[in-house]
Every structure is written in structure tokens, then in C-alpha cells.
Amino acid sequence: MGNSSDYLRSDTSPRQVDKAWDMYVNSGVLLENSIRGVIGDSWARCIEGGVDPSSMQTRLMVDDAVYQTLINKNSQLLKAAKPVMEQASDLLAESGSMMILADRDGICLHVEGDRKTVEDGHDIHLCKRANWSEHAAGTNAIGTVLSVGLPVQINTTEHFCEGIKSWTCTAMVIRDPGSQEIIGVLDLSGLSSVFSHHAQALVVEAAGRIESRLVRIKLEETNRLLNAAVTTFSSPTRDAVMLLDKNGCLVKANEHVASNLAMRGVKFNGKGQSIIRYINNDLKMSKTEWLRSEWIEPVMEGQDQLGSMIIIPSPHSASIATRATLPSDTNSFADIIGSSSILQKAVKKAQRLAALPVPILIQGETGVGKEVFAKAIHATSSNCKGPLITLNCGGLSRDLITSELFGYVEGAFTGAVRGGKMGKIEAASGGTLFLDEIGEMPLDIQANFLRVLQEGEISRLGEHKQRKVDFRVLVATNRDLNHDVKEGRFRMDLFYRISVITLTIPALREHNSDIEELVHYFAEQIARRDGTLPKKMDPDFINVLKKYAWPGNIRELQNAVECSYLMCETDTLTSKDLSDEFLSMSCKEVQSASIKDRLSSDDNLSLEDAERIIIASALKTNKGNLTKAARQLGIAKSTLYLKLEKYGLDRNLAIASN
């Protein structure tokens, strides 16, 4: 390809390109240096692929069923791209252009932009469901950028098909943050008479923002997957257990995988590639003697499948699990990071409660670390030599909670695994059962669980045999169970049974003095995991984190630090490494607090004065963009114009004076 800038640079006029195209299409001759190298190569691919140069539009469209399948398959890409595309809507309307998101095959998934341009796009099938790969639509930014992998702008006559020659389009590929494989394309298109030819920088910047959002989304989904699978990985077993994401990529494997597979004649390289390709290809999987379909189980969160679990039975034992003892850990509370008085008060109370053989209700907002406290309590209790079995009741269907808690025998229902399955209650016997989000448990299952606590016996689904169980129960919730009892959503008798003692974990905003210590702890953990030296912390980085209220608490802080680590290209974390989404939320939070302070500082403030302050603040937050300011204020843009005139506000003056 040579120098990429020479390959992509355009020094020819539309008339010269049109003349070269006419000669090439009619005689197959392309004069040297008559067009850009990237265009010449694309035209050659079009001729070889049998593309009709007289086509007036793309020749391929997918039907609604295929399109919906693609939407589901590219859910992460769409989740990352839509906010970026919507934020550019004002600019697109003003420039008479449209922005298109396509998948790795060139199928258009989502469109934003100027209404008139979008309507014009339908004439050439530049719309959802259309295939804009080169073999379907000839030379065009979407198809050509998929071929070269570099940002490309195709100007009017450079298009191969006649019907598209009045358009100019610019595109950039979007790559997977992990594998760096191309997963999509972002395109900016418009009619040449109104379209700006300086769009390449905008597209490259927007594609970069989408890739940054993908990093955060993938981290969040990986954490959800790990949380959903934590019970399986924490249960002692001799079976090989592998956790894979939705794309079949290995996320986690236990210590038995390598030896288990070696006994079956399969080499495990630590990345799981030799197995993953079988999972992604059903035909190959069915021909593989050692891998059986019944070993693959979906990992669910409510109705969402987060990934898959492969559980390969140990060649030495047919048992589902073999319980091992856990050594007593008198220093387990050291995993709770923070030296603030309010947090240490909760820690000291938990240490005292650990020695008492009674149920404990752990209360606190989502992400405060309720499970960390539960693990510490178990490790220092008299049950520490038994297992700690956990189950998150949130987002699970009634049937799934029932089977997870009580287990089942073979044939109990359609889909039951061969040999049956031990439930969490039975697995916890001799140890501790920790039920997170207990408030989400359906009422009828609450009654069955209460019966187990009262009688110390359990029956698996599909059998009448009573099995003796003896375990300590810890439960957690972010709900007000007292209120739920009054509303009839939680059984009073079960509430009093599980809440003998209550332990409340403070929200992070109540002990934000611990943020710096937590950030350094997370940084050390990431460095240890990746085998690198911990990064330094710029004081401004810590200050920005301390000013935020952290509605997601410690879990949200951990995600923010890990995301910043991935984006940081130096040895020092700064506020610039924080994601755009976090900085935006933090800015709005500070701005909101500022408005409240100003409104509350003057008791004699009139309604009109308050309205003027709020409008001026909205203008400042949105940098004078009236459309966004009106949207934030919840009023029409025309109403905002009237308010500006009424209060004598100018968008630029408002920014400068506030």
C-alpha cells in the first residue's frame, strides 16, 4: 500500500475522476495517477465482484428478522454509539448531513441526522437494514473503510455506482477494545452541495469516543458476569469450570481446567482458544468427543444471558461438588479498606456479631460492599470451616431462584441436568448461606425458605426425601424491609427471623475521606493482576473523585479507577483519564449543587430571579447551545428564546457572567 497518506490523499478534480471512471468502466483501462490509490483499488474490487456501475442504489437489504438478530448481536456497539450519535444531532442538522452506524459487514444499524438528508438517503437505500459493503454498493466510505481499515472520505465522482455520485461520505472503523478486531463503522454522509469536506476529524473523534464507551460497557458487563457466577466459583469442587462472555471469550477458569482437559487429551493454553472455537461453532462442537452440550450452561441475570459456563466433570469423581474446609481467617476484615470513623464503627460491630450464632441482616445501598462484610463475618465465625455459599436473588425468575436455592433431582423439569443438582441451601450445610437482595425473593418462596429455617430440613424439587441441613444465614438488602412488610411485599415472620441483628454499611459519600485509600488499593490490585508497577496519582485525579457523590458507591469507584487505568497512556493517572461520561455526570452534579447554594443563600430571592439563575446556569452547562439548554430545562426552544429576551440574557454573555 506504501505511504498511507499518499494512498488516501486526493489531488484530482471531480472532472478528472469522472473521466477516469468512464474510461475504466468502458475499457478497463485506468491511467496511472489519474485517481487516488485507495479509489483505484476499490474500483478494481468492484469490477472483480461484479458490481454494476450503473446501479442507482445499494442492491442488498436484509429483512426485519435478520435486522433484529443483528441488533441483538451488536447490542454493546449500539449502546456505546447511540449517545455519541445523538449528541451530534444538532451539528448534523446544521450541516445537512447524516451519521450512520454499520456493523462489521456493512449493514446499517442506526441512523441520526438532518431530516431532509435522511429522507434523501432513502432514495439510494442509505438507511437501516441496507448493506453498504463494496460488493453490494460499490466504492463508498462504509464499504471501503472496511477493506482498508483507515479513515476514508469518498467524494462524489469517486463512488463506483452512478446513483451515489451526488454524495460525499466519510467513515472510520470501530474496533473492539480488547481484540482490536473491527466490529463496526461510523459514517458521515451528505449531498455534496451542502456537505462539509472537513468531516474526517469529526468522524475519527466520534469513533474514538464510541470505543472509549465500549471499554466501560465491557467492564460493566464483565463485572455483572463475574458477580452472577461468583457462587459457582466460590463453591469447592473438583470439576473444571470455565466462564465465557457472550462472544465466547474466556473470562475466568478455575485451577482444575488444565489438568482436567489434559486427562482428556486437550491442551489448555490459558486463553481457552482451543475450546472457544468449538462453542462458537455448533457443528464442530457436536463432533468433539470430549465436549458435551450438557456441560454448557447459560449465565443469566433475570431474562438477560450474560455469558456461558462450562462445567466439565472431574474424571476422578462423578459428584457435583466436594466440600472442602476453609481455614479460619482472623484478619479477614483487613479486606475492608478505609479508616474513617463511620466505616470502622461498622467493622467493629461486624467483628462482634461474627462470634454470635444468629442471623444478620446487612443493610446498605448497592455497591457499598455488603458481600465483603458477609465474607469477613463468615471467615471469623464458628462456621468458618464450612463453605460460604452466596446467591443474589435480584433479577432472577421465580423458577430460577427455586432451583438455585433448593436444588432438583434428575427429570424434575425440562432442562434439568443429568443427575440432578444440589441447591445452595444444601451446599451451605455446615457453613454459611449469604442471600443478597433478599427483598426480591417472591412471597411463596419466602414461605418455603422460612420452613427450612424453622425445621432444618429441605427437599429438592421433584423428590419427597427430607435432607437435614444446618447453616448460618446472612442476608443483605438495599430496600426498606420494614416498609415492604407493611405493604405486604415481605413476610413479617421471615423478616423477624432473619433480622435478629441489623448491620448497616455506610454509603461511600458518608465516608469519602476513604476514597484516596480505596483508589490506591484498587490501583495496586490492578497492577498486581496485570503484572505492572502501580501508577502514580495526580492530586487533581483524587480531588475530582472526592467531589462526586458516588450513587453506585465503592463498586462504581472501582469501575471508574479500572476504566481510567485502561485509558491512561502514562505512568500517572490524571483527571483527563476519567471517562467522558463520568466527567459529564460529575460536572452536572457540581453545577446542581452550585445552583442550590445560590438559591438557598438569599431568602428574599424572587421567583423571577430564581428562574433567571437556573436558565443562565443551563446555558453555561451546555456552552450556549440553546437546543440542549431547552432540553435540560424541559421547555420548548421557542419558550427559551422568550425567557432570554425577558431577562436580557445572551447565550455568550450568560456564559461569561456566570
Chart the SSEs and their pairings:
Layout: H1 4-8, H2 14-27, H3 37-48, H4 64-73, H5 75-87, H6 89-95, E1 98-103, E2 108-113, H7 115-123, H8 134-137, H9 141-148, E3 152-155, E4 167-175, E5 182-191, H10 200-234, E6 240-245, E7 250-253, H11 257-263, H12 273-280, H13 282-286, E8 296-301, E9 304-312, H14 341-354, E10 360-363, H15 370-379, E11 388-392, H16 398-406, E12 407-408, E13 421-422, H17 424-427, E14 432-436, H18 443-455, E15 457-458, E16 467-468, E17 472-477, H19 481-486, H20 492-498, E18 501-504, H21 515-530, E19 536-537, H22 539-547, H23 553-567, E20 572-573, H24 580-600, H25 607-621, H26 626-633, H27 637-647, H28 651-657
Parallel strand pairs: 10-17, 10-18, 11-14, 14-17, 19-20
Antiparallel strand pairs: 1-2, 1-5, 3-4, 4-5, 6-7, 6-9, 8-9, 12-13, 15-16
Describe, in plain words, how this protein is organized in 3D:
The chain is α/β, with parallel strands linked by helices. Helix content is 46%, strand content 15%. The protein has 28 helices and 20 strands. Strands 2-1-5-4-3 form a five-stranded antiparallel β-sheet, with helices on both faces. A five-stranded parallel β-sheet has the order 11-14-17-10-18. Residues 277-287, 317-330, 588-596 and 653-658 have low confidence and may be disordered.
Can you give me a brief rundown of this structure?
The protein is an alpha/beta fold and 658 residues long. The protein is built from 28 helices and 20 strands.
